[in-house]
Design brief:
By secondary structure, the chain is of the alpha+beta class. It contains five helices and four strands, in the order αββααβαβα.
Length: about 120
Amino acid sequence: MYTRHRISSMMKKVPSSQGIYAMFENKSDKNSVYVGISTNLRNRIRQHMIRRDSSVTTKTSAVRLNPDYIEVIRWWVNDKFEDKIVLEAAELAAFDVFNPVLRSKSSVSRKAEKLYQQKNSKVK
């Protein structure tokens, strides 16, 4: 679990750039709880972990993100993520890799879906 000190220390390392992030419930990186994208990773992770007012943390449905159980947060940035289509396609790939319990609810453009399908077919 992230203590206040650990959150404060970790937040200093999170870039303010756009990227993909994943939250895990343990250090083995095997239990991905949530995967999302953001145009400002620092602000978005702060919204989840400190302010706790993101839609996924405030849901009253059966499944929501509980920051108290997050052990590890990882993020990835790339200059190509400045293109929203590339960022959305990369999020789809992250869903495949991490198979999170929760996924961001952002809508994916047709162009991003097409790019993802093209890249995914080359990997197989």
